[in-house]
Write a structure and sequence with these properties.
alpha/beta; Rossmann fold; five-stranded parallel sheet; two-stranded antiparallel sheet; 6 helices; 7 strands
Length: about 190
């Protein structure tokens, strides 16, 4: 059994959002299979946007960020669920991860010029919803925004392996996407 952390990266954490419904379905499936699950809803917590580069080297003082860092450390597997916005993850998710990274939490001291990932030994799944067909995003657009997120943030933080899952037709509201919700329940059961 695994300790799982689900990060709902939608800036609006209301239950009517597809990302919220998918996070709940994944959690239901995982808990039914005996996994321990915690969830962070980015849209439900308050934190400042990092504007001063000198603060990046300091340990964060916001309780929500410190709590989130603890949850990251408890997890064996992290699950990021978010909609594709302008070709990549929503800005608030990246702002959250910038705060999480403060104080060398994600990137530890450098050895030979390369940082050591603070989350080494953990894996991740990245579940992305989008209006367009996923094949179009991967082939025509090269999935560049998600590849950058996975490589430049998650892998650099030590997470490996990282599996990306793309689901199209996300303009549908949760009541109209029962197959997708069932798919996320199944993924939760397998901790995939």
């Amino acid at each position: 059994m695994k300790n799982l952390l689900i990060i709902n990266g939608h800036p609006d954490a209301s239950p009517g959002r597809l990302s919220s419904a998918l996070a709940a379905a994944y959690q239901e499936g995982a808990e039914a299979a005996g996994h321990t699950v915690r969830r962070i809803n980015i849209g439900a917590i308050e934190f400042p946007v990092l504007r001063d580069p000198s603060k990046f080297t300091s340990k964060p003082s916001e309780v929500a960020i410190l709590d989130a860092q603890n949850e990251f450390l408890k997890a064996d597997h992290l699950v990021f669920i978010f909609p594709l916005w302008l070709g990549g993850p929503p800005a608030l998710l990246k702002a959250f991860l910038e705060q999480i990274a403060c104080g060398q939490f994600l990137l530890r001291e450098r050895k030979h010029g390369f940082p050591t990932g603070g989350l080494k030994g953990r894996s991740a799944s990245v579940i992305v919803t989008m209006g367009m067909p996923p094949l179009l995003y991967r082939v025509i657009f090269g999935a560049r925004g998600i590849k950058s997120f996975n490589q430049g943030i998650l892998r650099l933080s030590g997470l490996s392996p990282i599996r990306a899952y793309y689901f199209g037709g996300a303009a549908i509201t949760p009541p109209g996407c029962t197959r997708l919700i069932q798919k996320l329940r199944e993924m939760g059961r397998k901790a995939a």
